[in-house]
Amino acid sequence: MQYPGIVTLDDLSNRLHDFAAARGWEQFHTPKNLVMALSGEVGELISLFQWLTPGESAGVLSDPERKAEVLDELADVMIYLVRLADVLGVDLLAAADAKIDRNEHRFPATTTG
Amino acid sequence: MQYPGIVTLDDLSNRLHDFAAARGWEQFHTPKNLVMALSGEVGELISLFQWLTPGESAGVLSDPERKAEVLDELADVMIYLVRLADVLGVDLLAAADAKIDRNEHRFPATTTG
Amino acid sequence: MQYPGIVTLDDLSNRLHDFAAARGWEQFHTPKNLVMALSGEVGELISLFQWLTPGESAGVLSDPERKAEVLDELADVMIYLVRLADVLGVDLLAAADAKIDRNEHRFPATTTG
Amino acid sequence: MQYPGIVTLDDLSNRLHDFAAARGWEQFHTPKNLVMALSGEVGELISLFQWLTPGESAGVLSDPERKAEVLDELADVMIYLVRLADVLGVDLLAAADAKIDRNEHRFPATTTG
Predict the structure, then answer these.
(1) Residues of D in contact with A39 (CB under 8 A)
(2) Lowest-pLDDT range, A38-47, A68-77, A102-111, C42-51?
């Protein structure tokens, strides 16, 4: 996946902040509540894959109706994750990058030849 | 949250791709399996917040040990979400942005004054 | 909660087995798939509680419409948990009872006076 | 699965009530918190199945170490589900049975011959 940069993570985070503020929803956006919302959306995502074989899951986007559902749920998961990180003041990219550093040590790549 | 751009979403997505390829893990990274892994990590994240009041959850990062745990789990959630999107060929930023467009219509902001 | 014994756990487990068999669904009911279905239903349950305060959550059944939704999702969670245990051949009551034995040692009750 | 009736659902529910009361934990056992705890345990359960093929998942209990982990997580899920139902005053068996009644109408069994 290449991200073309038309919308950035900053744009998304700011837009979600403004969306909540414009509706008076900031009072509901505690980390506890947002973690629950994130979990609920992941539950909806998982329900789209539960009866598929692993092979079928790889081709799930070839059906237009199913594609729209998967994109919709992935969007919701991304939205709540970015909103949660914003409320906590966490840089998701830096946190993920640092975690991969640690994973490089935990799971060294096997080199052959 | 402002993302400084030192690590981009493209960087993260590419690094995760290379990490899996270097370990021969691509065979396990079907969408079905990655959705499960994402769900498992969200479960670990939620367990850090389950006994906190909403107010306590807002200050969760003030404890250094708890902060490290929350960052670690947020990183894992981000990692599997970005990896899943890469395997599916989905642009998370575009999907989330389009979803907010739809949400603007579903939940119009109340304007006063 | 007192369970009146009109429907037993055996009855439920057997009925779910027969329900799946009568529809040719046993092929889909692998432990992997059933764990996903369980997780999806828990996600629907959590979405009913995500914006409630802890106090509001305690009174959630006083609203008839909300009560019906909560009962419906609790039922779905129970259904997939019992079905999963049946497919695996696990006695949920014995497993839970043995776990509480272990928890008694991990978290000794404080006795005073 | 046949449940031998040595431990009943009433026994389990009562034991969980007493366990919480003896430790002063009832204050934490709001429905909102218990739903989160349930979700966290399902996340741990799902992590045991995420890299298995559906076929491997069917034989997961043949490995003694893995069996102990699966039983432990199934127990935790059952514990929080039964505790949540107790706090809400919901009869899980009746709720599940009524849901299957509704499912019989939604998904009629195909009869042949």
Answers:
(1) 36, 39
(2) A102-111
Q: Is the dihedral of CA D24, D36, B104, A6 positive or negative?
A: positive
Question: What are the tens digits of pLDDT across the range B27-58?
Answer: 999 999 999 999 999 999 999 999 999 999 99
Torsions phi, psi for B101 (to 5 deg): -55, -45
Does position C6 have pLDDT exceeding 80, yes or no?
yes
What does the pLDDT average to over A74-84? Answer: 98
**Global pTM?**
0.96
- Do C44 and A44 make contact, defined as CB atoms within 8 angstroms? yes
**CA–CA distance, D29 with A69 (Å, rounded to integer):** 35
Distance from CA of B5 to the nearest CA of C (A): 32
What is the C-alpha separation between C67 and B53, in angstroms, rounded? 24
Kindly provide the ipTM of the predicted complex, given to two decimals.
0.96
Q: Return the HEC string of chain A.
A: CCCCCCCCHHHHHHHHHHHHHHCCCHHHCCHHHHHHHHHHHHHHHHHCCCCCCHHHHHCHHHCHHHHHHHHHHHHHHHHHHHHHHHHHCCCHHHHHHHHHHHHHHHCCCCCCC
- What DSSP designation does D59 have? T
**What are the chain C neighbours of A51 within 8 Å (beta carbons)?**
28, 33, 37
> Looking at the partner chain, which of A33, A36, A43 has a beta carbon nearest the beta carbon of C39?
A43
Closest approach of A107 to chain C, Cα-based (Å): 25
What would the mean pLDDT of A11-33 be, rounded to a whole number? 98
- Position C75 scores a pLDDT of 98
